[in-house]
Amino acid sequence: MRYAQKMFHLNFLAGAFTDSRLHPEIPGRAISLTLLLGEVAQIPSLLQLQAETQLPQWQQWVGYPERISDDALDYVSERMDPGKLRRGAAWINRKLKRGKAFAENKVNGLLVISLDANEQFCSDHRCCEDCLTRQITSKDAQGQPVQHIQYYHKQVYAQLSGPKLSVILDVEPMRQGEEECAAALRLLARLRESHGPRFFDVVLVDAWYTNGPFLKAVVEMGWPVIAVLKQDRYDIYQEALALTNGRSPDETVERDGRQVEIWDLRQMTFTETYTEPVRVVRVRESWKQRERIGDQWVLKEKEQNWIWIVAGDLDGYAGSVIRDWGHLRWKIENNAFKRTDPGLAADPLRSPSPGLSPSPALDQNHRLHALSRLCHIAWQAAPAGEGHVAGIAQTNLSFTSMRRGRAVL
Questions:
Q1: β-bridge mates for residue 254, sequence order
Q2: pTM (2 decimals)?
Q3: Measured between alpha carbons, how far is 361 from 366 in angstroms, rounded to an integer?
Q4: Is 305 in a helix, a strand, or coil?
Q5: Radius of gyration of the chain, Cα coordinates, nearest whole angstrom
Q6: Which tens digit of pLDDT belongs to each residue from 192-235?
Q7: What is the 3-state secondary structure (H, E, C) of 107-162?
Q8: Cα separation, 93 vs 167, whole angstroms
Q9: Element of type H or E holding 296
Q10: CB 240, CB 265: distance < 8 Å
Q11: Choosing a second label site near 155 at 20 to 30 A (CA), which of 29, 180, 251, 342?
Q12: What sign does the dihedral 90-96-98-101 (CA atoms) show?
């Protein structure tokens, strides 16, 4: 607590968050600080957080001498201004970077971010005006297939990925009728404005974003892109296989007990929508893995193959570095999506009051998630000598799990 107060001025930061209540009985600063401190103390639900607010020490921390009910926390968090939460997160991120907290995250001197989309929840019955829709097939009571509309929300996340620290910088909801690339470009444009063009150096994406217009837009923003190349329909994919089959690798390295062979192809042509030359890096990784077959343990040969396409200026970096950056993209799967609350999938969708959200679909869960990011990135970067804060740095709790006492830890 003392470390967070000293380094990030949580009292002043929480006071900057506003909500849409006209005549609040409980100060917004007390609500915001309660939610932030609840993340520090790893309080798993709003009901338990309500009980903690009865403690005299807690009331002294937040500056409010009475108990704060779970209904009040739920009501106010739904009406918080997400723009203020984003600015607070950007302020903390810039402060952490100035303090060299991300220095160990650099790979060959560069910071990389991963972009990917994740569906947060869905419903067959409840919806809001910003819900995305899709047709799904299920079975009726007689076992006959029937089609109906399902409603869901999906967001694109931007995570600073590295060997030591993974931090979600921002999130952008997808809008009706658009694909992930459009939401990702809005997200990158906002990050460029809020964090600056040199806050990170490289953008990592999966195969869904490997198309000419997206690569061109990101490179024009000033960032090189490393994208997974999987689509067989691209001529460059077949060409890369033809140019590397039967040829000795350009580089051979070892990574985590794996033998890594790398073929590096430069000055390749991608598509008509991206006319600049690109670089293709093909990687084959082989290793032995111990498996149990019957009543015996045996070593089995394993192999993985990857192809990455590089758009933008990364010519000075070896193919092994491209491979190392490319594998950082899995950080967003392991440190973000796999730690979200699966219990929310069954929750009814909640629509914010009109005029409260500057971004479609940024409902209560998104606001709570943004608030939790403010706190969590601070705990991750805390030095090991700061008491229990170092232990908190290993957790990734989200306030999206603090819904009416239902928590998934």
A1: 259
A2: 0.78
A3: 8
A4: strand
A5: 24
A6: 999 999 999 999 999 999 999 999 999 999 999 999 998 776 88
A7: ECCECEEEEEEEEEEEECCCCCCCCEEEEEEEECCCCCEEEEEEEEEEEEEEEEEC
A8: 9
A9: strand 296-311
A10: yes
A11: 29
A12: negative
